[in-house]
Amino acid sequence: MKRRAFMLSCLLSAIADASPQYAKVLRGLALQFPRDHGAHPDFRTEWWYVTGALDLPRQDIGFQLTFFRVRTGLAESLASPIAASQILFAHAAVTLPGDKLLHAERAARANLGAGVSTTDCDVHVGAWQMQRNPSDVFILKAQDAQFAFDFSLTPTQPKMLQGDAGFSQKAARAEQASYYLSWPQLRVDGGIVIDGKAQRAQGKAWFDHEWSSEVLGDADVGWDWLGINLADGGALMAFRIRDAAGATVFAHAALRDAAGRTQLWSGVAVQFQPLRKWRSARGTDYPVAIEVRFGPHVIRTKPIIDDQELSTRRPAMVTYWEGLVQVEGTLVGSGYLELTGYSGKIAL
Questions:
Q1: Residue 259: how many other CB atoms lie within 10 Å
Q2: 341 touches 322 (CB < 8 A)
Q3: What's the distance, Cα to Cα, between the start and end of the chain in Å?
Q4: Is the pTM of this model over 0.85?
Q5: Where would a tag sit more exposed on the chain, N or C end, judged by fewer CB atoms within 10 A?
């Protein structure tokens, strides 16, 4: 046993890059499409994230499908196309109102059960897939024993470049930033299978694509994030980065109204205030009802169900809350609230 452990340690030492040089996020870089819908393997982390609310087969069924790419810092000197330098994994979930959350996960090494394009949005882990076609329609496919869906997402308005033309600051330090774009108010069409029953599906979705090499500082543990399709056709994105004491390190909100005008707020102009917490079976307290204040607006989140906690194991254990919420107040709509770092610092 000791000999095997020693050999494994030697192997990892041989393939590890002691100080991988991750690409940096720089203000002022003009994003180029469709290329920037694709992967950016020089950066440490990246995700393509879709959430939505269905009207058919019944209202307030929530769904999410997220693909993650991680540059591990391992095996970068190896010429093999299946070296463990890039890992892809995916999370999928369906929220059933008044019932439960269904979720599943997949993980694989790039070029060994998974793949991603660097020229457009085209990523898969096994049979799970997210792909953009030339008409800007996104195709989503996910299958599991509990559920499956096959959706097309059609834009009804332009994409949103978050922050400063896609440069999204996450703290006072310039290094803590990401490139970040959203596509709200996507029309969902397709089919969903729940408990073996196939049904037609329609609704609205939100698409995010974000890549970076440093988001959280040493003292930061996670974030609260909202992506809301507003009832009047507008879109709201808001987030805050938190430290271990629960204090806000940095906050930002972006509101695009139905006419296409965008307003931004940052720092102390954006306030997150927990209103109600829910304790999971794993003993983690999540502020599932939050009040967010920015500019003239005050909104409150109301979860469709409280238990929308995901606990995943591949490629590593991560526990977080991500679920469908209604938003009430000066703005009205529905979308997703994501709460990370409440069960321990989120590992990026």
A1: 8
A2: no
A3: 31
A4: yes
A5: N
